Amino acid sequence: MSIRVLVADDQSMVRAGFRMLLSGEPGIEVVAEASNGLEAVDKAARFHPTVVLMDIRMPELDGLEATRRILAAGDSARVLILTTFDLDEYVYEALRAGASGFVLKDDPPEQLLAAIRVVARGEALLSPAITKRVIEKFTRISHPQPPGGLDELTARELDVFRLIARGLSNAEIGAELYISDATVKTHITHILQKLNLRDRVQAVVLAHERRLFES
Question: 4-aspartylphosphate modification sites (predicted)?
Fold first, then answer.
């Protein structure tokens, strides 16, 4: 089954470039394009994409609010944020809104293609740089009480959650805890279910927003 992609960007040349790149890739199909956030929300509902490549800065409705509306509508699409540089001030807000990751517009083509496939599998794409900024952002604001469901996590699940919050990959978590990759995935599934989270990006944001693992 092919990965259905919606490209949302206000620059026609950018959209054309992504369409050219993706059209030649087996297993990936561009099903629609949008030039602003309102159009992205509408076309996500109409075309049911697997992945939305979402620019943040767009007219009428920005990518941040478009992401919120698409996910609030219960759409199963995964949102991959497009940004022109990795210090985009809106990136962490997009992650809080439910985006599954981000890519730079000037990333090599193979990196973008890999990102689309990762997100389409239901995984999240969160770089160490973003993790670091999330940490720095949330250490400067007030914090509500720990989330419901935290006391349902086992000791091992808390260990895994702590390492997710540090930005470690599944392989790195497995090596740290001496457990298999499959076991790591099982623990992550349980953590997300118990805390009612969409993916590990939201887990990272939650951990640092609530300062769950600060010494």
Answer: 55
CB-CB contact of 28 with 20 (8 Å): no
pTM of the model: 0.75
156 membership: H or E segment, kind and range: helix 155-165
User: Residue for token digits 């040349």?
Assistant: 13
Rounded to whole angstroms, how far apart are CA atoms 28 and 119?
13
Domain spans in the chain, listed from the N-terminal domain onward: 3-125, 139-209
Residue with tokens 């759409």: 75
Q: Which fold has domain 139-209?
A: Arc Repressor Mutant, subunit A (1.10.10)
What is the mean predicted confidence (pLDDT) over 3-17?
Answer: 94
Q: Within 10 A of 1 (CB to CB), how many other CB atoms are there?
A: 6
- 3-125: CATH class: alpha beta
Q: Are strands 3-8 and 51-55 parallel, antiparallel or unpaired?
A: parallel
- Which residue is listed with tokens 């206000």? 10
Output the CA–CA distances (angstroms, integers) from residue 183 to 119, 158, 176, 178, 198, in the order listed.
Answer: 20, 14, 13, 10, 19
Q: Cα separation of 17 and 9, whole Å?
A: 11
